[in-house]
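CHAIN AND CONFORMATION:
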Amino acid sequence: MLIVRWRTATLFFLGAPGICFATPTGDFISRWRSATHAIEVKGASATPEDAARSPEISALFGEFAEAAQAYRTQIIDARAKKLTPRSCPPKGVDLTIDSMISDIDQLPPDLKQRPFKESFAAVMDRRYPCHPGRPQ
């Protein structure tokens, strides 16, 4: 299994290129699995640099970063308006695409057919609900 980790803070400040269409969640997942499988086939000789050089993995990281940034913006906007945000993730939460996909696989089928940004948001909402006493 190829594990590629990006800290949330990194995702939020990269300024990933904008995606001009909404990628369906199923397409994102199949593209990610295909791209990482191609690198896993190399076995022990595969390196993180191999992943970084892959145009498909780079594009997927960009889409993941865009979903994370859009979600973060929603939370910041709610807080600025003194509203309860849709979720309360801890600062510096560590997200990986593999763990996000694993959680998306647990979503109801209708959520899996929506754009990736919506599935990303649904997972974050479930992972980090706001509770009394949890910083908002």
Q: What stands out?
A: Confidence is low (pLDDT under 50) at residues 1-20. The chain has one domain: 22-127. Residues 22-127 form one domain. The CA atoms of residues 88 and 120 lie 14 Å apart.
